[in-house]
Design brief:
- This protein is mainly α.
- The protein is built from six helices and three strands, in the order H-H-H-E-H-H-E-E-H.
- Strands 1-3-2 form a three-stranded antiparallel β-sheet.
Length: 194
Amino acid sequence: MDRVPNENLLARFEQSLRQSRAARMHLAARLRELEAEADSVRAELAEMDLLTSQTEAAIYRLLSSVLGSGNLATGLPSDAELEAAMSRASQPARAHTPVERRPQIPLVRNNVEALSDRFMDRTIPQAVTLLLREEGGALHVNEIYNRLLEGGFKFTGQNPTISVAVSLNRNSRFRKVAPGTFDLVMRDASSKAS
């Protein structure tokens, strides 16, 4: 008679263990999703920081050129004087300089097929180092992503281009030369190492 209660107790423990393992797997999957989202937000924050610093630098350059005309000796100019000076400063520049266009951002191709397996067993930094050496210059993360897929690289996250950007941002081998665009810090590192 003691066997029946022990078997029931054992069955309940086994069921509880299965439920605990399933809950743990669910939480681990959710944690991976949150970490990927956090990486995405960090990358967006880094882009915003860059844009903010570029805007601040432009404002300081403009204000220093306006204020450099001797207005500091008589006190700071009024808002109206600043606006008038800025409009005067920007008008000749528009007349003489062509409109600067941003470089075209490569599209992420959805139908990329692996043409080889050269990147299959490599990390993102290893594969991108090879790509940038072969390219001889900087590449945008969208183009890097497309070429990694062509080389058989397997991405596991939901936002692979962000994974590439975050991985390159964190690695001292790479430097960001424009928004979303990376190059090697040292192009000839292999020849200097030998």
